[in-house]
Design a protein that fits this description.
Layout lengths: L8 H10 L8 E3 L5 H4 L3 H4 L4 E5 H9 L10 E3 L2 E6 L2 E7 L9 E5 L4 E3 L22 H17 L4 E3 L16 E3 L1 H22 L30 H14 L2
Parallel strand pairs: 1-2, 2-3, 7-8
Antiparallel strand pairs: 4-5, 5-6, 6-7, 8-9
Helix pairs in contact: 5-6, 6-7
């Protein structure tokens, strides 16, 4: 299984799995190191499960521990395959993106891919938090490009949601799956953010406070993205300026 989702959700998760199979969970795989996703694995360890994560996650847990987060038993550098019976889950690391250790999950036999928190069906979306503290700008575009290329090479055609809200009428969380083209759509947004940040600065459209003047910004092609708020663009672009100016 992937991401226990917190100490409150993990026991419910375990009961839901038990309703499907009598077999114990053998592996708990972390998508990244954010506590809201990975806390709670302890409940599965009681039945002998092992925890797997990309090695940078383990490094983060060692310097910023949380008693509710289990340290990984198995770590990997770039890729790993979890095998249980005749089923396989591919773990693929394309560099920092949504955290330093974000892992892309794939089930190649079924053509499935999951990119937790970055791409969520049924459509590409605007960041919920415009300050985007979780984004790693220096590799974000490369991450998406490598993910797109990987999906094409492995004939991936479907993206699986990382969160589904049954009551959502539309927008992020209203569908369990979507076409792999959503990865391209989400990448297009981030590529445009970086391009606009450069052009706006060159045109003198950035104030002394590091915020862009919206009259210099032309990103209306994304106004149909879920959660789009033009007034939040200065905050998003300020994060990019911070990267350009300070490398972080």
């Amino acid at each position: 299984m992937t991401d226990p989702l917190g100490i409150d959700a993990a026991p419910k998760y375990k009961r839901a799995i038990a309703a499907i199979t009598d077999a114990p969970v053998k592996y708990v795989v972390y998508s990244h190191y954010h506590w809201d996703r990975v806390a709670g694995a302890e409940v599965f360890l009681r039945d002998g499960a092992e925890v797997i994560a990309q090695e940078s996650c383990a490094e983060r847990f060692s310097v910023n521990p949380n008693p509710d987060v289990v340290t990984p038993d198995i770590t990997f550098e770039t890729d790993y395959v979890v095998k249980v019976g005749d089923q396989q889950l591919g773990l693929n690391y394309f560099g920092p993106s949504h955290s330093d250790c974000m892992t892309v999950f794939t089930v190649e036999k079924q053509g499935l891919m999951q990119i937790v928190d970055l791409v969520n069906p049924p459509a590409a979306a605007f960041p919920e938090n415009p300050t985007i503290p979780y984004i790693r700008p220096h590799n974000l575009r490369e991450f998406f490009q490598r993910t797109i290329e990987f999906a094409a090479e492995r004939n991936i055609d479907t993206v699986v949601a990382s969160r589904v809200m049954p009551d959502a009428a539309s927008g992020a969380g209203s569908s369990a799956t979507g076409p792999v083209s959503l990865v391209n759509d989400q990448a297009a947004f981030w590529n445009a953010i970086f391009e606009q940040s450069s052009s706006v600065r060159a045109a003198g459209g950035v104030g002394i406070d590091g915020l862009v003047r919206l009259e210099y910004v032309d990103l209306d092609q994304f106004d149909d993205y879920a959660g789009y708020r033009k007034e939040d663009l200065p905050s998003i672009m300020r994060r990019v300026f911070s990267y350009y100016d300070m490398g972080r």
